[in-house]
Amino acid sequence: MSQLKLPAANKVTLANREKIIVDLKAICPGEAVISHNSEMRAFESDGLTAYRQMPLVVVLPETVDQVSQILKYCHDNEIRVVPRGAGTSLSGGALPLQDGVLLGLGKFNKILEVDYDNRCVVAEPGVTNLGISHAVESEGFYYAPDPSSQIACSIGGNIAENSGGVHSLKYGLTTNNVLGLEVVLITGEVVQIGGKHMEAEGYDLLGLMTGSEGLLGVVTKVTVRILRKPETARALLIGFPSSEDAGQCVADVISDGIIAAGMEMMDKYAIHAADDFVQAGYPRDVDALLIVELDGPEVEVDILIDKV
Ligand SMILES: Cc1cc2nc3c(=O)[nH]c(=O)nc-3n(C[C@H](O)[C@H](O)[C@H](O)COP(=O)(O)OP(=O)(O)OC[C@H]3O[C@@H](n4cnc5c(N)ncnc54)[C@H](O)[C@@H]3O)c2cc1C
Asked: For the segment 119-177, what is each residue's pLDDT rounded down to a tens digit?
């Protein structure tokens, strides 16, 4: 693997570490500033564990005002900042910088509002992806983008990475499901983007923020749309003599106008590895498997299953 080239550390920042820690403690009193190596170890990498690096210091703010003050302080003193949600990123997005403040959003973990009339949820960025669905499941709703890390990853991280999952084929990625954001800019300014509706007027700032990997600001509030759970969902498991045949089937299903809730393909090696591990009972005499999930009203799903 080629080595990731990190920017050279700012020597002035490194030399001022003790003062920076004192200043950050003034903004975030109590135990919100973590500076001992043994305690910072938990933050040294994200899901891309091939790369590790200790941050200058870790700060875990609790309020938007604290986030604003931290960013303004870092901006005024030319200190780098890396926001962090749950740290499951597979692209090194939350990898600390040696001369950077690691800004953990884990304490922003509350659902602020469930608005069934407008079919949306307002949440703090540290709420897990699955936490949003859990908050509305009793009324038959859910949040559609479903990264396989959804039990752990935060909605703030989802915004920054424009995350998606199996069901994004039909229901879209994060960018198709986010309605509004509160963002703190590096200057400390707090801005509101969008609201509780789709397609706000003006420039597509929501689109700009979604997928920006924490480089444009820190998300402190998220409004996402929720959907009614489909009446039914059923999956087909289809075996093929080759991966090419399975791929052609995907193309045929899509070109026939069928939008499956999800489609996933496994080649021979994936089938055998998964079956060895969980004994799922997959057929072992095929070279490829396609799992096609169809959802919607019962009658529609019956027809679509026959067509597929
Ligand atoms: C087992 C596993 C399975 C996965 N499956 C999928 C999958 O199916 N689909 C998928 O898309 N991804 C998947 N991922 C990747 C990862 O879970 C997603 O990218 C997720 O959105 C990251 O969220 P996080 O809270 O962990 O963010 P982090 O890893 O903490 O951060 C990710 C990026 O977001 C930024 N960030 C975090 N919070 C904020 C904030 N509040 N404001 C501004 N920037 C912020 C960080 O700076 C960083 O650049 C998987 C990861 C693992 C480990």
From this structure: 999 999 999 999 999 999 999 999 999 999 999 999 999 999 999 999 999 999 999 99
Is 2 domain-assigned?
no
Q: Residue 264 pairs with which residues in a beta bridge?
A: 291
Q: Which domain holds residue 287?
A: 232-307
In this structure, the answer to whether residues 123 and 141 fall within a common structural domain is yes
Query: Which domain CATH number covers 143?
Result: 3.30.465.10
Q: What residues have CB less than 8 Å from 49, skipping those under 6 apart?
A: none
Identity of residue 43: F
Q: Which amino acid is at 148?
A: S
Residues 224 and 244 in one domain: no
Measured by CA distance, the residue closest to atom 50 of ligand 1 is 149
For ligand 1, pick from 88, 127, 146, 185 the residue to mutate: most ligand atoms within 8 Å of CB.
88
Q: Measured from the CA of 105, which atom of ligand 1 is nearest?
A: 41
Could you tell me if residue 1 is inside a domain? Answer: no
d(CA 254, CA 144): 20
